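Pipeline run #58 for the internal structure catalog. This entry was flagged by the ingest filter as a single-chain record with no existing model, so it goes straight to prediction. Upstream metadata was stripped on purpose; only the residue string is passed forward. Reviewer on rotation: M.T. Logging verbosity set to normal.
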Amino acid sequence: MPESAQDTQSCVLETGDAFFPLKWARRLRDLIPGITEVVTLDGARMHFPDYRAGELLAPLLTHWARHPD
C-alpha cells in the first residue's frame, strides 16, 4: 500500500495469464489508493520482466517521468 494518498503507482498486467484476468487489475486500481493507471502487455505471461523487459521499461520510465518524487 502507498504510504500516503500522494504516492502514485502503476499496475502492469500480462494479458496472457489465465489466472489473473484484466478485470482484477482494474479492481486493484479501484481499491489501492495511488494507482494512476493500468498498463497491459498483450500476450505476456508470468515472469514477463525476464523475457520482455524492454516492454516493461517504457511504461516504467513514463511513470517515473510523470512522478519524479
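catalog note: Residues 9-66 form one domain.
catalog note: The beta strands are 9-14, 35-41.
status: ready for reviewer M.T.
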